[in-house]
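Reviewers of the previous submission asked for a worked example of the structure-prediction workflow described in the proposal, so we include one complete record here. The input consisted solely of the amino acid sequence. No template or homolog information was supplied to the procedure at any stage.
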Amino acid sequence: MDQPTNIAAQSDSFPLTRRQQLRNVAIFALTNGLVYLAAPVVYVGITQASLITAMGYSDTVANLPTSAMFVAAVLPIIVAWRFHSVAAIKPVIITCYSISAVSGLAVAALLYLPSPNWLRLTAVLLHCGLIGASGSVLNPFQWEMISRGVAPQRRGLAFSLTFGIGPLFAVLGSLIAQWVLSGSLNIPWWSGSEGVTVRSLNFAPLQFPWNFAVLFAATGPILGLSALLTTMFVLPTVAEEPDGPTWASGLLQGGRELVADRVLLLALLAYVLIDCGSTINNNLSLYTRVALDQPAEAYVGYQNALRFSFKVIAGLFLGWLLSRTNAKLGMLATGGMILCGILWVLLMPHAWYLACFGLMGAGELYGVYYPNYIMNCSRPHRVRHNMALLPLLGLVTGLTPIMFGAISDGFGLPASFMVATVVVGTSLTVIALGLPARPKPLWDNSTEPKPDAGSGRRKSLSL
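From that input alone, the workflow returned the following structure tokens.
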């Protein structure tokens, strides 16, 4: 795939040895693999919606966890400016993993102990807010960590392992979650005498809400291990770093640059639209009661398993495709998969509808390929700040799940799917008509030397 802008030296004399870089690749893949293993809980949406509807709340309330996750988006931009040094990268990432681990254990305790539903709902919403805040903070710091710790020619290996092989951990976690929630698991089985059959693994199911408590409790040690592995990541030594801008001045500077850069502005708009459209996932899960006449929690594990199985295939394919084409195609491919997933629900009846979770899971890699395009639009010293803007824009996205829930309560689930189709289609239109295939950072003559004549740098908008 196209590589993000390198913040470390781009020359052959990369400051870390080959062995150190391969160690960093392994740690990056393992820490994210553990996050995938905890995906039934830390990928806020389907599991939380099923838990809340099982407590007797409406579709609108069931969509609140996703909104809570996005509302916490203002934090990353503050942290990115407050902790601007290279020395802060690892401590910030470790803190993010630790917060997510502890909050998951806290929710598990309230679900396990006799507690009123309003208190459990509050705990789930707070947990989702912390997941959103810590995950959004972690994202720009982790991108910078891999940029400084792995040379460009080895990042393809890091991304293939992380986003191609990593989702296999999520498939495993999702199947375990299905087993815990329902007490049974149907898996395909092959024998020489019978051919392909379906085998069921059964045990005495845990009672609600203890089954959900087990899922939340498991995230504690899993994410704690990610925090521990991060301490082993090797970063090059930086002799001296200039003081960063204040939060207010840095935000104003970033806003001015954003308005002046048409391509970056359109890329961010496309990101917001696809981010909003993808939150329809909660309603897709709740549609189980219509398509299969079953409660949503009866199929949560299978839905997540499909979601991440397709992501494995898409992760490997998209990395190969992008390495041979351009950054724009990665955006169109992932956004197109989400559009197909929503249309699939509207067109396919009964059990066939479940395949939409595979398409949506593959499309969720927009979280890699849209930011990758934005990174290629960004100047090196602005990468962390521009990436921190993405979750800040999630304040808009945070309203969308509530809107989809309200549409569902008022007009039915299919109506919310049609609105999501329009939102995602608009994102793809912006990309197809407004963005170049291979973006380059807007040149800043005040801080960097002028490019050679005819270098193809794009011009800013007239202000």
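Residues 18-434 form a domain with the Growth Hormone; Chain: A; fold (CATH 1.20.1250.20). We consider this example representative of the routine output the project will generate in years two and three.
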